[in-house]
Specification:
The complex is a heterodimer of chains A (about 450) and B (about 425). With about 450 residues, chain A is an alpha/beta fold. Chain A folds into three domains: about 100 residues, Orthogonal Bundle (Fumarate Reductase Iron-sulfur Protein, Chain B, domain 2); about 160 residues, FAD/NAD(P)-binding domain (3-Layer(bba) Sandwich); about 140 residues, 3-Layer(bba) Sandwich (FAD/NAD(P)-binding domain). In chain A, about 35% of the residues lie in helices and about 20% in strands. Chain B has about 425 residues and is of the alpha/beta class. The chains are: A alpha/beta (about 450), B alpha/beta (about 425). Chains A and B meet through helix 2 and helix 8 of A and helix 11 of B.
Chain lengths: ~450, ~425
Amino acid sequence: MAMSHQASGIQAGRLSAPEIADNFGDLHAPYDQHEAAVAADRCYFCYDAPCMTACPTSIDIPQFIREIQAGHPVSAAKTILEQNILGGMCARVCPTETLCEEVCVRETAEGKPVEIGRLQRYATDTLMARGVHPFTRAEATGKRVAVVGAGPAGLAAAHRLAMLGHDVVVYDGKDKAGGLNEFGIAAYKSTNDFAAREVEWLLQIGGISMEYGKKLGQDLSLDALKGDFDAVFLSIGLGGVNALRSAGEDKDGVRDAVDFIAELRQAEDLSALPVGRNVVVIGGGMTAVDAAVQSKLLGAENVTIAYRRGREAMGASRFEQDLAASKGVKLMFNVMPKAIHGNGAAAEIELEYTEVKGGRVSGTGETVRLVADQVFKAIGQTLEGQPEGLEIEGGKIKVSETGQTSVAGVWAGGDCASGGEDLTVTAVAEGRDAAMDIHSSLMG
Amino acid sequence: MADLTTEFLGIKSPNPFWLASAPPTDKEYNVRRAFEAGWGGVVWKTLGSEGPPVVNVNGPRYGAIWGADRRLLGLNNIELITDRSLETNLEEITRVKKDYPDRAVIVSIMVPCEEEAWKAILPKVEATGADGIELNFGCPHGMAERGMGSAVGQVPEYIQMVTEWCKKYYSKPVIVKLTPNITDVRFPARAAKAGGGDAVSLINTINSIVSVDLDSMAPEPTIGGKGTHGGYCGPAVKPIAMNMVAEIARDPQTHGLPISAIGGVTTWKDAAEFMALGAGNVQVCTAAMTYGFNVVKEMISGLSNWMDEKGYTSTQDFIGMAVPNVTDWQYLDLNFVTKAKISQDDCIKCGRCYAACEDTSHQAIAMSEDRTFTVKDEECVACNLCVNVCPVEGCITMEEVPVGEVDLRTGKVVTGEYANWTTHPNNPSATAAE
């Protein structure tokens, strides 16, 4: 018998296993063949298509949709994967509403874009279900490249380098590849262990060896890697998290949202995962939404996102905000945490209303208290454990357009590198482009 | 509400929508359902001679092509004439006509090309009380190989001969159904008229292979690994049928010969177009086979609404109205000048007009950095391709260049004076323009 929403404190089993399974099913059910055909038929095959321009990996979207229309989704998948080897994951997690689908001319015309993300998933799922890996390696170059970090940027770089004939070793501090695809991102966007299956599929290219449990700064040094390999690509992500700097932050029940999400993603049995009765998430980005929605899906009674600026400034898209609201998450704007109260464990959070003047947020003095037995901090991640000697810009490793760092022979991409939004699709683009640059530099 | 009552060859029906001779009219059961749904008349599925009936294949009979969302656009079939006994059909026709005296019941017939065969069947058909007959000279498969159907319809002399026999042995109206599988439909139509036919109906189905199964490497529908050409019909054939109807309507030798139009009629508008081109009524098959008999209800309400809007009180008011406007290319006005115009308010910036014009036409559309598309009047030949490929109806229009203004492409002032190819200086056989 499952515990109820009303059980106080942080408790597991607020919902029954079938309810949990239902809650964590696919956010968007995959298309069947006919649905895909109908959706594909809506594409106008635009000239110099805006969707393609909006895609950070520049996938030839009209081309792949036309291939679905004409009944060969495997070719469509190849069109996608040539540009974006993690096209399967991006089809699930891309904020398409602010990228390709936002600029779709049918969005302009009728407020209903071609569902590019779902079509992309249809194509890539079809290919993966057939166990096809459509790429082969070029003749061996004899060059060796180290990739540090097996997240989207590292995997994209490794695949491209392997395809070009280089031998690649990918290091990761965790015991599993995938980075945020595996440990971040809401579970309902990557069901049935998709992240791990995608990595397995990607590695079919060959020429990539995976070394787990190896962390830069602890088990590896950049100098040693530079000595052992012809080039190094760093894709170490943002390992640190920002602190609230509010009184009571150390109380039980207060934790980083990224840790909660990682624990949730790795949980064998979600009904055994504890969650508070009254959850407050501090922040306004995708991590905040993912933590809040999943708390609700685990059975929390009240979940509130508290964001210090207005709705329009929120990092999470309107689609994500509406998704949260539809799941019963309350969105509070222009409030910031002042203190967390409770005797040892969090019991209440005190929020102060804010105003934004000249871009700066300041408290108005008025406060409000919410019952909170669990508080998640989702106020941004920071670069951590980067090697000495690399130039840093805006808290990230400074890179050129093609991913070169200030140190010769070292490239970087993904969330740890400067420039670009911190999206899976951006990381893939950066990894791929750095790989191309490494290739020309090695073969030049 | 406009009165849709139509009189065709003196046969009255409550509306101009008849079901064509085909599977929907094969049996009493279907025809009763059709009349209950509101169809104005039926042409009963083709009867053959007395004796053992024909047999059909026992594999698939139909093939199709589809548009978006699997909308059926074209259907092909390899079914033959009725495979039920003549006696059964005659009994049913008699009963149905008796029960529905206000509906048109026409009997389609196909018997061997011998006078005796027609002489034998016609009195039996006459005895049913049906309103008329339709001679199936069109069916392109199976029966043609036995010297019937389109094998007759492709030879004008045979059409005339058989029509004469029918007029000799049958007292009611005779409609001659024509095949489109010929080069010039005017010749069979003239033969039908010469033989004393009261009307023509067209088109029958078009010889076709709709698809090839690329695994079995056989045309579809496939029966035991083989396929054959079938008769093509449905929305896809409407333009071909409309041209043939118009050709007969404007041919001086057949002008005024009543026409029952067939070919892809799916909505009221299709019917109105055929009738504007000279058809006295229309026959429908594929739309009914795709959607069921209830499609006639939209045809009735749509035609009636349109007639009310236009002030037509009878179908007679608009039948043939478009015929005088169908002409030969050589008589089109070469001084009529238009230019494409793109409404920036309606444009959704897909760029299809640009791709079409730039790649395949006259490079007359400019595309700016911010995806604004504009027509270059100095290049535009007014081909209309941009209008046709634009996904937004009414976004691109063809605007007439007013008299007195300069056509920027030719540099010539638009005079408004009619001039055609017959008088054009580039025409080697032109008559003097002056």
